[in-house]
Design goal:
This protein is an alpha+beta fold. The chain has three domains: about 5-55, Structural Genomics Hypothetical 15.5 Kd Protein In mrcA-pckA Intergenic Region, Chain A (Roll), CATH 3.10.290; about 65-125 and about 215-235, 2-Layer Sandwich (Alpha-Beta Plaits); about 135-210, Alpha-L RNA-binding motif (Alpha-Beta Plaits, 2-Layer Sandwich). Helix content is about 25%, strand content about 25%. The chain is built from seven helices and 15 strands. The strands form three sheets. Strands 7, 8, 9, 10, 11, 12, 13, 14 and 15 form a nine-stranded mixed beta sheet that branches. It is elongated and about 65 Å long. The two termini are about 30 Å apart. Bound molecules: uracil. Uracil binds near residues 136, 190 and 191.
């Protein structure tokens, strides 16, 4: 990998903004190959240099994993000629890294969306064969009950021919809402399954993907890097 500016390398990890990186360097908290870094413009080779922040090694050549609280109103796509996408919420240096959403949420769906440049991990998390559960909170027009839970648990075949794997449904709030657990992600799947039960979805939010739960301290539109533990849990689940 070519030599790159230190400030760019550190910001590209997703852990700090460009401004925070500048401050860290000014405060003498960044060391490169044993020397305290003084200038963000200094260059380093991310594959070879040992880069420490506050004494902790930082992997600047690695992959990026972000958790976004997707707001309603944006597409889960990398770009669209006419409409805003979730990538618009990221700063330039992360947009340029080629991150993409792990699966799609509908434009009006909110909640957990992972963004990464790790193609193989994203592929595995979405594969029904890997059994990575995705949990959604849905509010419905109507009342969901045990019969709906039983129908989802058997595996529904919709009128349009869509065959769904067995899924979980737990009624909440007297049946006006529910948790739906899927291990696949077909187009509009939660909405189509509940509509087929005569209980159309009025609000939908994804709460978790495998062991990674939406960090409720993130307001819609906010994001943060996954912690090392969260990335490790996703890697374990793909097995
Ligand atoms: N199911 C849906 O219907 N919509 C989503 O956005 C995700 C799952």
């Amino acid at each position: 990998m070519a030599m790159e500016r230190l400030d760019k390398l550190l910001a590209s990890t997703g852990h700090w903004s460009r401004k925070e990186v500048k401050d860290m360097i000014r405060q003498g908290r960044v060391r490169v190959d044993g020397q305290t870094a003084r200038r963000g413009e200094d260059k380093a080779d991310p594959r070879q240099a040992e880069i420490l922040v506050d004494g902790q090694p930082v992997d600047c050549g690695g992959l990026v994993y972000l958790m976004l609280h997707k707001p309603a109103g944006l597409l889960s796509a990398t770009r669209d000629g006419r409409q805003g996408t979730v990538l618009d919420l990221l700063p330039d240096h992360l947009r340029r890294r080629g991150l993409f959403p792990v699966g799609r949420l509908d434009k009006d769906t909110e909640g957990l969306l992972l963004l990464t440049d790790d193609g193989p991990l994203a592929h595995d998390l979405l594969s029904p064969k890997k059994h990575v559960d995705k949990v959604y909170y849905a509010r419905v027009d109507g009342i969901v009950d045990g019969a709906d839970a039983a129908a989802l648990a058997r595996g529904m075949t919709l009128a349009d021919g869509l065959v769904c794997l067995p899924a979980g449904l737990e009624p909440l709030e007297g049946g006006r809402a529910c948790l739906v657990t899927l291990r696949e992600g077909k187009y509009h799947q939660v909405k189509r399954m509940l509509a087929a039960r005569g209980k159309p979805v009025t609000y939908l939010k994804r709460l978790s993907m495998g062991a990674v739960r939406l960090d409720e301290s993130l307001a819609p539109g906010q994001w943060r890097p996954l912690t090392a533990d969260e990335v490790a849990s996703l890697r374990r689940e793909r097995k």
